[in-house]
Amino acid sequence: MMHFKGSDNNKNNKNLDNTFKDGLRNMNATPDPEMWDKINNNLNADLKKRKYNHWYIAALFLLLPMTLTNIFINYDLEKYYTEFAIENLAQLDGDITKENIINNNPVVVSNNSLSNTTELNITTERFQFKGLSNGGRGSALNSGYHNEAVVNKNTTGNSGSVVSFFKPSNDHTSKTNRDNSQIYLASLSPDFIDYSTESDNNSFTYIENNEISDVLKNKDDFKQLSKKSKKQELDYLLKGVYTGASIGVQKTNILRRAGQFAPILGDNVQLNSSFSFSYGARVGWNFNRYLALEAGVYKSDLEMNYLDNRYNKIFTEGNIKAQYIEFPIALKFRYAAFNSINHLPHLIGINTGFTYAHLRNANVTIVDTEVENAYQYFDPSQLALNVGLDYEWFVHKNISLTASASAAIFSSKGDFPKFSVNNAKSDLRTNYRFQVGMNFILPLSR
Amino acid sequence: MKITYIGAVSDEALIKGCIAGDRKAQYGLYSKYAPKMFAVCLRYAKDYHSAEDVLQDAFVKVFKYISKFRREGSFEGWLRRIFVNTSIEHLRKSVNLYPIINDAGETIEILDKSVFDELEQQDLLSLVQELSPGYRTVFNLYAIEGYSHKEIAKLLGINEGTSKSQLARARQVLQKKVSAIQKISIDGVS
């Protein structure tokens, strides 16, 4: 054995390397016979997991439209009773006087005011409309409701609106005037009225805002009034401010700063987002039944795996976790109607607006090694254009349940609104979000 | 699960079957390449069980991403890279791969080539496995897989100097161990 330095070292190294290379590079070794079973089980588990993921997504996409479609298909405006408060002016004593009424017709009233001293003397006679017989076709109510209306006749000391939109098929006492008015009025479906002749005997006088507004002579008149009344009622219920909260799942990615991301992951990594949670709170203003403005603050988590395709397609797996705080503002365009189940409003709408997002934290793990200061590789301030669909169901006149689906395209604040990766400081981020929540409505017109 | 795999099937057919999720094709590919790839795993892993874990993970990865094989090089080369990389990932989980060392000025003991000829395959494997993880990884990548220091540096996230020093140190350790084996052998004979 000798000791050398210099070129002999190289020769020696080469010998050593070649010996190991020749001996080991094409070596074979037999693994445990049960190894395949383990791999097979692993593959089955992976397959099952992917299968379930697909099912969850499919179910989500199917359930929401199915539910909405079901509700709206079943909703038929004319199928349900048109609800009006009926008074026989002969019995009405107060702000509206007998002399104002044509032919002493029965009266449909809406949005009228009564003085504090007014007492509506409701008796069975008030249902004895001209040309109509009590208890049969053409009567105001079925006999049972007829009597009930009479029982609930305490109308003393009322103020405010006298509008009744309760349904004859429901309990009067719980479906009477929207506020605490104690005026229990009957309701009437136009289907009960005999329209065979258009005579004054079959006409109804419609009194709105303490003035005679119209004379209802036929079914179309009632339909018109019905539509008008429903719209007014919707505005009445919806107009105001609201606040709420929601929670849901989302699928999003992360904005990588071009060029700066390469040292840890490369610019050509394959990023795979998984579903993550988001939750937040909102406030809004319902201008009317069509239009609302909403702003919110949401915390959203991001979790995604990536594959590093560098180095001749050798895969390195890793994980990115991030937290955003987002401030969306959106205009909401809605269609509102009364639902057929609890006869309160439900709304379907689209919304569009902007979102500012701030990246609060970001962690990158390569295999199990966490990258230090990974936050610097991502874009912290982002702006997005967002669109969404939402559905709102009132379970109470002040409480509604909400469901929404939205999509947003984020770019770096400096790039906005150029939604292009060319010449951009960073790439794009998309966010698909599904949420459910609850709103509390503070009405301003009630 | 028992699968009977009959006859020699080309890599191309196996790949197509695996892309389609055919379990028989997956088993065929496993049967064909498991012995070679397990040897790769053994070289990088600290022990037999760790090598088995790597083998399992790497094969799952192969079946998951086999559709990404672009047929630009040999399939075995692609497989080998996945196994090497998975081995490195596993090592990273448990150990610090790259201790800083100062090996300047050390004298290297030169061995006769005949010394190496006497070493069996299993001896070589044992010698490599006894190296510390950092030395083992760099030595495997450079001497056996044929990676350059630049490639190793990129792959492991270190600089080229570190890669070179790790290799030099690995060689020193191996040479010492080979010398020791030789001495034992000579003493035994005399």
Description:
- The complex is a heterodimer of chains A (446) and B (190).
- With 446 residues, chain A is of the alpha+beta class.
- Chain A contains 5 helices and 15 strands.
- In chain A, 20% of the residues lie in helices and 36% in strands.
- In chain A, the strands form 2 sheets. An 8-stranded antiparallel barrel of chain A has the order 6-8-9-10-11-13-14-15. In chain A, strands 2-3-4-5 form a 4-stranded mixed sheet, covered by helices on one side.
- Chain B is globular and about 55 Å long.
- The termini of chain B are far apart.
- Chain B is built from 9 helices and 1 strand.
- Chains A and B meet through β1, α1, α2 and α5 of A and α2, α3, α4, β1 and α5 of B.
- β1 (2-3) of chain A pairs antiparallel with β1 of chain B.
Give me some keywords for this one.
heterodimer, A: alpha+beta, four-stranded mixed β-sheet, B: 190 residues, 9 helices, 1% strand
In short:
The complex is a heterodimer of chains A (446) and B (190). Chain A has 446 residues and is α+β, with helices and mostly antiparallel strands.
Layout of secondary structure:
The complex is a heterodimer of chains A (446) and B (190).
Chain A: E1 2-3, H1 7-24, H2 35-74, E2 85-88, E3 106-110, H3 143-151, E4 204-208, E5 211-216, H4 219-238, E6 240-252, E7 270-273, E8 276-286, E9 291-308, H5 310-313, E10 316-338, E11 345-366, E12 369-370, E13 381-396, E14 399-412, E15 429-443
Parallel strand pairs in A: 3-4
Antiparallel strand pairs in A: 2-3, 4-5, 6-8, 6-15, 7-9, 8-9, 9-10, 10-11, 11-12, 11-13, 13-14, 14-15
Chain B: H1 11-19, H2 23-44, H3 48-65, H4 75-94, E1 109-110, H5 113-117, H6 121-130, H7 133-144, H8 149-156, H9 160-189
Distance between the termini of chain A: 104 Å
Which protein chains are joined by the largest interface, and how many residues does each one contribute? A-B, 48 and 65 residues
Contiguous runs where pLDDT drops below 50 for at least 5 residues of chain B: 1-6, 98-108
Oligomeric assembly: heterodimer
Helix and strand sequence of chain A: EHHEEHEEHEEEEHEEEEEE
- What is the mean pLDDT of chain B? 79
Derived from helix and strand composition plus strand pairing, the structural class of chain A reads alpha+beta
Instruction: Please tell me what the overall shape of chain A is.
Output: elongated
Number of distinct beta strands of chain A:
15
What pattern of helices and strands is seen along the backbone of chain B?
A: HHHHEHHHHH
| Number of helices in the DSSP assignment of chain B | 9
The side-by-side strand order for the widest beta sheet of chain A comes to: 6-8-9-10-11-13-14-15
Query: β content of chain A, as a range?
Result: 35-45%
Helicity level of chain B: over 70%
Quick one: overall form of chain B?
A: globular
**Any low-confidence stretches of chain A, pLDDT <50, length ≥5?**
1-5, 73-105, 111-202
Instruction: Count the E strands of chain B.
Output: 1
What is the radius of gyration of chain B computed over CA atoms, rounded to a whole number of angstroms? Answer: 19 Å
What fraction of residues of chain B sit in β-strands?
A: under 5%
